[in-house]
Amino acid sequence: MRSGRDSWLRRRRSGAGFTLVELLVSLTIVVLLSTVSFGVFGVVKKRAMMAREMAAARNLMTSFSLYSADHGGEILPGYRSDAEVYNDRGEQLYAPANARYPWRLYPYIQDVEGSLLFNGNEAVLEENDRDYLVSVSPNLGMNATLVGGHYGSGSLLRPSYRIEEAVGRFCVRHTSDTRHAPDIIVFLSARSDPEEGWEGRGYFEVQPPRVLTPVWSHEPWSQDARPSQHGFVDLRWGGRAVAAMLDGSARAMGEDELRDMRHWAVGAAEANDADYSVHRP
After folding, report:
1. Is 207 exposed, middle or buried (0-12, 13-18, 19+ CB in 10 A)?
2. Residue of 171, 224, 232 whose CA lies nearest to 205
3. Buried residues in 136-149 as b, exposed as e (16+ CB within 10 A)
4. Quick count: other Cβ atoms within 10 Å of Cβ 118?
5. What is the Cα–Cα distance from 89 to 71, expressed in whole angstroms?
6. DSSP per-residue letters across 226-263
7. What is the pLDDT of residues 77-99, one digit of tens each?
8. Total domain count for the chain?
9. Domain-embedded: residue 197
10. For residues 74 and 174, is the Cβ–Cβ distance under 8 A?
């Protein structure tokens, strides 16, 4: 053992370089350390991005509550084109950009980057039709069918008086209806179909697993599946989505939880029915 050490010392004193074996060992160590560092960095970055989405979810709920306070308790509609709406440059917007929640909520949030578009989705703002794209592709989609109401032609079930005569009150439209608030989803991580005009990390609406009939595919959620097969919900955080709840809180929810209708509809929560669907009372 001593003779080997003496030989190594003699090489160092004589100015000899590293041996090939020593260089390979050193290179291997550097590569391993780099791999570990990049892996840790990736995990930290992912957690930071998720935390940013959680903060955005809470900001949206603060603005959501301010809207209700300013409209006599009326809950923000998920899609309705009957309001005078302006963008962040003070320009009036028209259908369909004025119908979706982002620009309707903007006066109460004053934050396009940070609460509506973030984590790389800011590229929307550089597009020529930015106002339309901001309206259609915020990072978080709204549970428009069962909270606030979707009054457009693409509605799964428009909350009209005629329909409610047939199936009962299924949509939360006023703060007086906000029972089971900690359990009811308002906003959720979303993604759009490519043909919607922007293949990005957001969509203005998320759809529940069931309404009158099943909406979601029975197949497990997959990044490769079309977003519409699972209601435009994006389980982008390790199989979980960020959810903003009706009481203003935010949390991460997995697919099993999200398939439970008690997290989507007040009627389902009151009936304690995970497989609830809207039907004649």
Report:
1. buried
2. 232
3. bbbbbbbbbbbbbb
4. 21
5. 23
6. -GGGGTTB--TTTSEEEEEETTS-EEEEEHHHHT-GGG
7. 999 999 999 999 999 999 999 99
8. 1
9. yes
10. yes
Q: Kindly state whether residue 180 falls inside one of the protein's structural domains.
A: yes
Task: Please name the residues in contact with 180: beta carbons below 8 A apart, sequence gap of 6 or more.
Answer: 246, 262, 266, 269, 270
Tokens of 138: 């915020």
Contacts of 198 (CB under 8 A, 6+ apart): 124, 127, 133, 136, 137, 192
**Stretch 145-161: mean pLDDT:** 94
Look up the pTM and report it: 0.85
The Cα angle at residue 147 between residues 141 and 152, in degrees rounded to 5: 75
Q: If you average pLDDT over residues 12-33, what whole number do you get?
A: 71
pLDDT band at 45 (very low <50, low <70, confident <90, very high): confident
Tell me the residue range of the domain where 250 lies. Answer: 18-271
147: which strand partners?
A: 172
- Please report whether residue 122 resides in a domain: yes
Q: Are strands 250-254 and 240-245 parallel, antiparallel or unpaired?
A: antiparallel
Q: At residue 204, what is the residue type?
A: F
Q: Is residue 193 part of a domain?
A: yes
